[in-house]
Amino acid sequence: SSPDMAIKTNLTSLTPRRQAYSREIKLLSGGFSNPKAWPEGKLTVFPWDSQIDEVVLKAGRTADANELMYAVLGKVCDLNGASVDDFVISEVETVLLVARALSGGGVIRYQAACTFCNRVTKEEINVPDELAKRGEKPADYPGHDLLTLPTCKDEVAIRPLLIRDNKLIEARLGEPTNTASELVLRIVLPVVSINGGRPDTLEEVLIWYNALPPLDASTLEQQETALAPRLETSIPHVCDGCGKTFRQTLLFNKEFFR
Prior knowledge:
The chain is 31% helix and 19% strand. The protein is of the alpha+beta class.
């Protein structure tokens, strides 16, 4: 029987589920955006439970997809005194996947649909261990990556987008004088410096970006995507029916947040 309790249980510990089944992961960004809160990228993630479902239900009535993910993020991990604004956007999905997996024995269950013969199978994958890592930063990461554009040869320092950047983008899009699209703002905000010179304003970067040769503009966008620290959510499969290889993407849709 349990100490000081009338009930009898086979549980060997009465540690609350949220702590007992939590898991410490290493952020692929290394926690560069707040090393005090996430030293060496260490972050504790809690299992998804009914309390999280309640947060989703309440936030889902008024929040858009991004706001919903950010609201859940603060509940499924220990931010250790940091603000969600410090979090790298591409790693939000990582934390949500781990939290969801912790509630299901460490795995995510999903359906894989062959794009060739439409055969559907039920699958499961261990998260985060069986998902490929993308854009992982080294221990001495200075907070930005360097790339040289192929045509103009400008050396550009770029950093991963943070949640605070997303909020800046939303505010900028609401300004009547703004002429930049959301996509363009997502491309220029991560620019830290150009040939060692740090821009004084976002407008400087916009002028520079709009003058880039087409190949350089597309290279900048592609490299920002490639260098974003994240788990690969597009999973390769070989169809049992037709034998062809296809990829199934884990979707952050209504079913995931159910």
